[in-house]
Automatic annotation (TrEMBL):
One MF term in the entry's GO annotations: RNA binding
Function: Plays a role in pre-mRNA splicing as component of the U4/U6-U5 tri-snRNP complex that is involved in spliceosome assembly, and as component of the precatalytic spliceosome (spliceosome B complex). The heptameric LSM2-8 complex binds specifically to the 3'-terminal U-tract of U6 snRNA. Component of LSm protein complexes, which are involved in RNA processing and may function in a chaperone-like manner, facilitating the efficient association of RNA processing factors with their substrates.
Organism: Apolygus lucorum
Family membership: Belongs to the sulfotransferase 1 family. Belongs to the snRNP Sm proteins family. SmF/LSm6 subfamily.
Subcellular localization, as worded in the UniProt entry: Cytoplasm; Nucleus
The protein's name in its UniProt record: U6 snRNA-associated Sm-like protein LSm6
Keyword annotations from UniProtKB, A to Z: Cytoplasm, mRNA processing, mRNA splicing, Nucleus, Ribonucleoprotein, RNA-binding, Spliceosome, Transferase
GO biological process assignments: mRNA splicing, via spliceosome
Length: 316
């Protein structure tokens, strides 16, 4: 993916139909054979659904709410991204200093394999491409969903930032709807996980519920993880996870690398879309999507969810 070009994938990987860059293919077997441990905790999502937010919540719940430790180590290191090694563009890898930003150059699959337990692992892979051992070892998995219109708008800004995408906004939206972007298809991703919702080792949260009732989601997630805290501790965590606090948090906001990327692509640093924690709102698509594109999204959702576990849900 050259900077400025549409971040469409090159290959479709069956049986999920996952769209990926061709660089992903040689890693498929390593991911399938990745050794899973029962005390791993996985956060899984389609990109831009609130993965980072969920990771920080889960990591703190599982680490005795140790804010000092969380603030002193990058989330990328505490909660590494399994397939980052095959997703990050060469340009991004080469442009970073291996000493400062080692995670961009690391073989993330090996890095995670070598970590001590308990491990925290992020992935955007669909159900069928997870490591085989996930189904026998059954580690805890937290999956997070979000309204696809907000996802698409967030993904557009994500690619403007990380891939220097300079193409037209409507073209990007069409590529999203046509399931051409990396990690597409969106609905199939969500539906496959939704089908597993009754499994005791799987919890599904939504970005929208995190926005409307973060305290409740923290409690529910703590219960799922078997962690016990009092109300004050939950309130303090909710405060730590607020958008403004996370946006300022240098262990999370990636601001150093983001600034490097902005400079390399000569981006306008006052552009509010060009940062990692951008708006953090529900329905912000209403400010950025034309009624015509919004209508196309609704028709696409109706078609994709018809006859599936999601058909009865008005929105997600
Ligand atoms: P926007 O681009 O709409 O602002 P992911 O981590 O899966 O890449 O998701 C990124 C999205 O989650 C971004 O959405 C980001 O701003 C939002 N986000 C991250 N932390 C958040 C928080 N504490 N509160 C609300 N939104 C948050």
């Amino acid at each position: 993916r050259l900077p400025g070009l549409m971040p469409v994938g090159d290959v479709k990987i069956e049986p999920s139909g996952l769209i990926m860059p061709k660089e992903f293919v040689p890693y498929l077997d390593r991911i399938k054979n990745f050794e899973v441990r029962p005390d791993d905790t996985w956060v899984i999502s389609f990109p831009k659904c609130g993965t980072t937010w969920t990771q920080e919540m889960v990591w703190l719940l599982c680490n005795d709410l140790d804010y000092e430790a969380s603030n002193n180590k990058l989330l990328l290191q505490r909660f590494p991204f399994l397939e980052a090694v095959c997703i990050l563009s060469d340009e991004l890898k080469q442009g970073t200093n291996p000493d400062d930003d080692w995670i961009f150059q690391a073989d993330t699959i090996n890095y995670i394999a070598e970590q001590k337990s308990p491990r925290f692992i992020k992935t955007h892979l669909p159900v069928s491409l997870l490591p085989d051992q996930i189904w026998s070892v059954k580690p805890k998995i937290i999956y997070v969903t979000r309204n696809p219109k907000d996802v698409a708008v967030s993904y557009y800004h994500h690619h403007r930032l990380w891939n220097g995408y300079t193409g037209m906004y409507p073209l990007f939206m069409q590529a999203f709807l046509q399931d051409k972007l990396v990690y597409s298809p969106f609905w199939e991703h969500v539906i496959e996980y939704k089908k597993l919702e009754k499994e005791p080792n799987i919890l599904i949260n939504s970005f929208e519920d995190m926005k409307s009732n973060l305290f409740g989601i923290i409690q529910k997630t703590a219960d799922f993880l078997g962690k016990h805290y009092n109300e004050d501790e939950f309130s303090k965590l909710a405060e730590h996870l607020s958008f403004n606090k996370m946006k300022e948090n240098s262990a999370i906001n990636g601001e150093e690398v983001v600034e490097e990327v902005r400079q390399r692509h000569k981006m306008d640093s006052s552009d509010p879309g060009l940062c990692f924690l951008r708006k953090g709102q529900v329905d912000s698509w209403k400010d950025e999507m034309t009624p015509d594109i919004a209508k196309q999204f609704d028709a696409w959702t109706t078609k994709k969810t018809k006859g599936t576990v999601l058909e009865k849900l008005a929105d997600i």
